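Re: [help] complex structure
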Amino acid sequence: MMTESQRLATAPMGVPPRRPSAWPGSLFLWDRWRYELRMVGIGSFVLPLAIVAIYLTFSLFARYGALQNGGTLADADFQMGRGLLALLENGLALGAGLIAAGAVAPDRALELHLAAPANYRVTVLQRLGVVTLWSLIIGGITCATISATTYWVFPVTGFDRQLVWLPSVLCFMAIGAAMTVLLRSRVAASTILGILWIAQFLLKSMFLDGGVLQRLYLFASEQIFPAILQVSRSQWYDTWLQNRLILLGVALGFFVLTALALSRPEHLLGAEK
Amino acid sequence: MQIVLEQLAKTYKGNVQALRDINLTIGNGMFGLLGPNGAGKTTLMRILAGILQPTGGRALVGEHDLATERGRHAVKRVLGYLPQELGLYPDLSARDFLDYMALLKGLDHSAQRKQRVHDLLELVGLADVARRQLKTFSGGMKRRVGIAQALLNDPQLLIVDEPTAGLDPEERIRFRNLLADLGGDRVVLLSTHIVEDIAQTCRNLAVMTQGQVIFQGTTFDLLQAARGNVWMVTTDGPKPDGDVTVMATMHQGNAVQYRILGQPQPGTHAVPADPGLEEGYMWLMRQNSPLLTPFARAAYTVGREHLSEPGRGDA
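Output below.
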């Protein structure tokens, strides 16, 4: 005779529970996306907005300060424009990197997930995709909004304006994700991102001296501004564009590295130690 | 369902041999895997769960070969797994956690999934707290959530790694009984270093140490291995010394009663005692320390010839 435990453990489910979906954890299920959004956490969605708010506030203060110091309205708008340029290239990038590191951080139920039919790598890339999309939406909207005002100061037009923020945001995201997976630590990856971010300012002259480092400089728009206003476009545009495209390639490389590292369960579990 | 392991090996990076030459056949019912920490039990569990790949030999779960991606995927579809270190999402409720795990296991139909989650929460006695966040749960409650998630897909193979670690006695007994109930028509693989858990639930078991299986048989066989090697010594003098293991010490007024495992008889005043499974296990570990020296292997092999004969003496 069956015990209560056995009866419940084999309780009918309408469909035979031993024949689960051929595509477990299907990407097309809203329920699945709903949970992944919860796993990513509300903080990941708030952080970029908070960064926009902080930079916007400081930009307004800069504008106010310029007026208080006897500057013209044009000077004040220029200061505000610089602040918003920094938001686009520096602020959003750091925020995006941090949320990417969080999205791919070692899952609390990692071993359970690895033992489930749903592919862990797909799950993590799903989460990374969510925060990437969110960062792109915030970046795109911010860029478009600034472009529509008189505060756009960087001398490029059209799609080039998206290249002011897109490469640095994607680079920080990809590096943050790769470091988190490789080091199995969100904290370590966040620290690396912080150091990388600060290094862009401290080592500015070294990066801008030319050569390979110039091509890899993450803040090549904001940090060469407003000096480029003093020279002809031909003297900086090609190098700047090259830098932007190379950074997109670097980001792609780190994203691929992240995906590859996620397919090594022994590394993820720390068993390789 | 049957699990067949033939010369299974697992070597990690740096040439660390976690498993060596494992040969096991496991059928339906409860099967215990005993061994000290670091014996390779968890690595073996992870291979059987399709998480890790073996680096040598063969591992078949039913007709599925765990050396292939397809085989591992197929095993995961009929697997319930409760790892040693059970990680949960602290901000999810028990119900949401099980719902999410059910999605990962491919239970896509929403209504059926919710019914299954409800049934399992009833089964493990957590229906009343189903909406509470997991971070508010005690260790025992978390273990019960763990077993519930393992049963979501009505697994044919249930692997539980150190399931009773950290549980109080009442929880432990409840958990053991639950596992025993589930072992009827499926393979339940119970890995532990707590001998009592095996003694109370499993008829068949294997003992591992240093990546190798040093015993496979019934609990009775293991118990018999220690017969003739367990002694009671009551003394008001010094503690018995020599090549013996003191299994228990009981103070009785001025005298102390020792339960001793060893050979030969530790003095003429030592009285033979019936062995328990823990003593069988300890005897086995003594025989294999250092692991499988030619002498120890020979001694153990000689002993095993008598194992299935109740009442026979030395192992």
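The CA atoms of residues 98 and 117 of chain B lie 6 Å apart.
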